[in-house]
Write a structure and sequence with these properties.
The B regulatory subunit might modulate substrate selectivity and catalytic activity, and also might direct the localization of the catalytic enzyme to a particular subcellular compartment. 63% of the residues lie in helices and 0% in strands. The chain has 506 residues and is mostly helical. It starts with a helix and ends in a 21-residue tail after the last helix.
């Protein structure tokens, strides 16, 4: 009787126990990968290739979203699998490319590097063919693969120049891993530009943290990488509207750190190039945030010594702001005068060229607000001993719009500038500058002859007054020198008094 009862009870087989434990271990391994993709090949080589994926936080790329993905061998070709399996193979190949190699040693891991590069090329071809479907598992895998391969810490800069960033005379430095990085950047660009990409899902992985790390890469010393980043950031700004304000603020912070702290950054020119097109799309009237970006970020960018590296892009951004709001011309000119170089003639030439572009877009009303301090500075440029600066300042009168502004306000401008022209006629060493000075004086004669005569009389009076003052100073110095030459006798020398000793304990 007892045997009959025991025979009816279910018994666990050893085979069942083995299968259950295997599934449990498999699930644990998949959660460590962070993807949930099961691979049929259990060899040691594949395990070593995917071990780097374990370092990615499961909070950023959770494995739960991939729980339903069918296992596909990542080494298979897309041609060898059916259409329903291609999507799973796509995710598997992305996970396979998460291993990062050291390219400093060209003879190390060459076969693995070649295999990874071939896999990246297959992924790029698959995405460009339009067959890829960026579901949430695919978006997570793509974001993770790009993050692991691209986001890295750059080595310290050992350039001899102390100005920071690349200068025009320095040779660019190329990343030895570019053969892989280029394909990863191409994949990221195709991913961001994909027409059927669900932005609502993608923004969970291409988030603010992702964008912050992406912006950090603009400090790369490889110009090819910065060029790729420029295109990608522009696409992200156009497609992910939720990131626009964050991107603007993050770029502002990069500029603040560059201007006021380090003066070292390699990607300022590329960032300004992106912002040139962004500013052209600003709605009118401009928001206060955008005006603050001009005042607090763009105008102080004229301060660093390495402004020549990015001055062309900076000028374009400034002109775009004035095109949106002509009243900002006064703000820009005040900023130029504030940061006007004193000892750097090459910077001075750049400032005069930018000033001409700004004045071309300046109205008469705005010009009148700033013309007095502006032409005091231009007058000093006319007298510059550096002939290129003096020539460039004289050539402002060849611009029709600027000449029209000067003509309308000649009663104020001529008395400021004419003494500098007279001083050039008398003392400047360069014949080309002397000829340009005569041309400018002739323009003033044609504008208003009586005004020029009045300026000449005033200049003569100032010269006579200054000569009298100079003579008085000379006599004063002679009297001082005579008094200093008098040596008093020893009877009149007072001995120094020793301080009294303090007997009170302090």
């Amino acid at each position: 009787m007892l045997k009959q009862i025991l025979s009816k009870l279910p018994r666990k087989s050893q085979k069942s126990d083995t299968i259950d434990s295997a599934e449990t271990n498999s699930g644990n391994n998949n959660s460590n990968f962070g993807t949930g993709t099961q691979c049929t090949n259990s060899g040691n080589s594949l395990s070593s290739r995917l071990s780097v994926v374990k370092r990615v936080s499961s909070a950023v790329f959770p494995s739960s979203i991939m729980a339903g993905v069918e296992a596909v061998e990542p080494h298979l070709s897309f041609k060898d699998v059916s259409n329903p399996q291609k999507q799973n193979l796509f995710v598997s190949k992305l996970n396979l490319c998460c291993e990062v190699f050291d390219f400093s040693d060209p003879d190390k891991n060459t076969s693995e590097q070649d295999m990874k590069r071939q896999t990246l090329i297959e992924l790029a071809d698959f995405v460009s063919s339009g067959s890829a479907k960026f579901t949430e598992p695919a978006i997570a895998a793509m974001s993770k693969m790009c993050a692991i391969n691209l986001f890295r810490v750059f080595p310290p800069k050992y350039r001899s120049s102390g100005t920071g960033g690349e200068t025009e005379d320095e040779e660019p430095m190329f990343d030895p891993a570019w053969s892989h990085l280029q394909i990863v950047y191409d994949l990221l660009l195709r991913f961001i530009s994909y027409n059927s990409l669900d932005v609502k899902v993608a923004k969970k992985y291409v988030d603010h943290s992702f964008m912050s790390r992406l912006l950090d890469l603009f400090d790369s010393e490889d110009p090819r990488e910065r060029d790729c980043l420029k295109t990608i950031l522009h696409r992200v700004y156009g497609k992910f509207m939720i990131h626009r304000q964050f991107i603007r603020q993050a770029v502002s912070n990069i500029i603040y750190r560059f201007v006021f702290e380090t003066e070292r950054h390699n990607g300022i020119a590329e960032l300004l190039e992106i912002f040139g097109s962004i500013i052209s799309g600003f709605a009118v009237p401009l928001k206060e945030e955008h005006k603050m970006f001009l005042c607090k970020a763009l105008i102080p960018l004229h301060k660093p010594k390495s402004v020549g590296v990015y001055h062309q892009q900076l000028t374009y951004c400034v002109v775009q702001f004035i095109d949106k709001d002509p009243k900002l011309a006064t703000t820009v000119i005040k900023g130029l005068l504030k940061y006007w170089p004193v000892t750097n003639s090459q910077k001075e030439l750049m400032f005069i060229s930018e000033l001409e572009e700004v004045l071309e877009m300046t109205s008469v009303v705005e010009f009148q607000k700033i013309m007095v301090p502006l032409f005091r500075r231009i007058g000093r440029c006319l007298n510059s001993s550096h002939y290129q600066v003096a020539e460039r300042a004289h050539l402002l009168w060849n611009n029709d719009h600027i000449l029209n502004l000067i003509t309308q306000n000649r009663q104020v401008i001529a008395p400021i500038v004419f003494p500098s022209l007279e001083r050039n006629t008398e003392t400047h060493w360069n014949h080309a500058v002397l000829n340009l000075t005569e041309n400018v004086k002739k323009l003033f004669w044609d504008m208003d002859e009586e005004l020029v005569l009045a300026c000449i009389r005033k200049a003569e009076e100032e010269n006579s007054t200054s000569s009298v003052a100079a003579e008085k100073r000379k006599l004063t110095w002679e009297r001082l020198e005579t008094a200093a030459g008098f040596q008093p006798s020893a009877d009149y020398i007072i001995a120094p008094v020793k301080p009294a000793a303090c007997y009170v304990a302090c």
